[in-house]
Design a protein that fits this description.
The chain is mostly helical. It has a domain at 91-204: Herpes Virus-1 (2-Layer Sandwich), CATH 3.30.40. The chain has helices at residues 12-23, 25-38, 40-67, 69-81, 83-94, 97-115, 121-129, 180-186, 191-208; strands spanning 159-163, 175-179. It has a two-stranded antiparallel sheet. Helix 6 (97-115) packs antiparallel against helix 7 (121-129).
């Protein structure tokens, strides 16, 4: 089914249809709900196929509608009335391990594009398809939930991408997923610096005893 041509004047029939919809809104919504419940799989299949066939036009139309004053005002009103529900859906969506990793990968891709560093999409896809359950360093269980308070103790168990060799970029055999605490401790320190740090901590621990 083709989209309505943008800019085409609305006919009188369209005005009658709008009036009819306004008068019978509840009845039509009830019919739609019953139809969707009965034919859910067929409806979803049609929607996916329709979107694939008209993706570019749909995105262009949505973008144009969002940029109009009316569109901006509608979005503002919608977000104001559904803020809690929107935040809940965002948290639930990003708390899925594969989605969380995909989000981290997207951030890395944007950073590498700005800096001109190498980015191996195939290597990242492996982590997306099979997100690790434990930190590659300390083997603690990773916590994929999001939107926690800043100083929540579970934040240290959030997943983060680490470059094994900081000189290299995000390429094959140079990427691992660590908990945030291990990645923060490692940072860009060299092996020599980490050994000196361990020696310093051991020395002062013995003195305190």
């Amino acid at each position: 089914m083709p989209l309505r041509r943008e800019g085409r004047p609305k006919s009188r029939t369209h005005e009658y249809r709008q009036l009819y919809h306004a008068e019978h809104k509840d009845r039509e919504l009830d019919c739609q709900r019953r139809y969707y419940t009965k034919n859910k799989n067929d409806v979803l299949t049609y929607q996916k196929q329709y979107y694939r066939e008209n993706r570019d036009r749909i995105l262009a139309r949505n973008q144009m509608n969002r940029n109009t004053p009316e569109g901006k005002e509608k979005r503002k009103i919608y977000f104001a009335g559904h803020r809690e529900d929107i935040n809940r859906r965002i948290v639930e969506g990003y708390s899925v391990p594969s989605t969380r990793i995909k989000r981290l990968v997207g951030n890395i891709r944007r950073r590498t594009q700005k800096t001109g560093k190498a980015f191996d999409a195939d290597t990242m896809q492996v982590f997306i398809l099979k997100p690790p359950k434990r930190c590659a360093c300390c083997r603690t269980l990773l916590d994929y939930s999001v939107r926690r308070p800043k100083y929540d103790p579970h934040t240290s168990r959030s997943p983060s991408f680490d470059r094994v060799n900081n000189v290299l970029s995000y390429v094959t055999n140079n990427v691992a997923i660590l908990c945030t605490r291990c990645n923060t401790l490692k940072s860009d320190a060299s092996l020599r610096e980490l050994r000196l740090l361990v020696k310093y901590i051991e020395t002062h621990t013995k003195r305190r005893k």
